[in-house]
Amino acid sequence: RAPPLNEARAGQRGRGGDRSGGGAGELPNPGGELGGGRDVAHGATRAGDGWVVVGVNGALLTLGLLQEQAQGETRLRDASLIAMEAHVFTALLTSGFKRITGRAPPDAGQGAHHFDPFTRDDAFPSGHASGVFAVAAVFADRYAGPVPVLAYGAAGLVAVSRVVLDRHWASDVVAGAALGIAVGRGLSRRHAQNRR
Questions:
Q1: CB 32 within 8 A of CB 8
Q2: What confidence tens digit (pLDDT) does each residue in 163-175 have?
C-alpha cells in the first residue's frame, strides 16, 4: 500500500530532492491520486519557463511584423516588443530580490519563514509568476475584449502550478505577479506616452 501523500512528501524532503522540476527530485504521487492535477501543473509550469515565454513572444513579434507589412497595423509588433522588454526587466529585478531574500521553497522542508539571504534559496518572488504576469500585463494593457482575460488567466495558471508542485509558497507567486504586473503595465504606459 502506498503511503499517504503527506508522509511521502516528508520522506522526499528528508532526502533533499532536486527542486529543478524533473527526475529523482520530483515529489512522489502515491497511487496516482493527484495524477491529472499534477500533470496539468507540470504542463503549466513548463509553459511559464523563460525560454517558452521568449519563444511565444518571438512568434507574436513575427506575426506582428507580417501584419505591419500586410496591413500597416503595428499594435501586435509594439506589444510583443514591450512584452520582451518587460520580461527581461522583470527577470533582472526578480533575480535581485531572490538573492536578497533567500527564502527556502516548500519542497526544502524548512518552513515558510526560513530566509537566508545570499544563499541558494531563491523562492521569493516566483520568477515564473513575475515573468508571465509581466507579459500578460502588456497585452492586457494594449488590447480589449477577451485578451486581458486570456492573458491573465494563462499567467494565473502558471502561478498556481508553482504552488501545486511545492516549488513556491502562495506569497511567492502573489509577489511575483504583483511585480510583473507593475513592470509590464508601467512599461506599456510609458511607451504609449512617448509615442504621443
A1: no
A2: 888 888 899 999 9
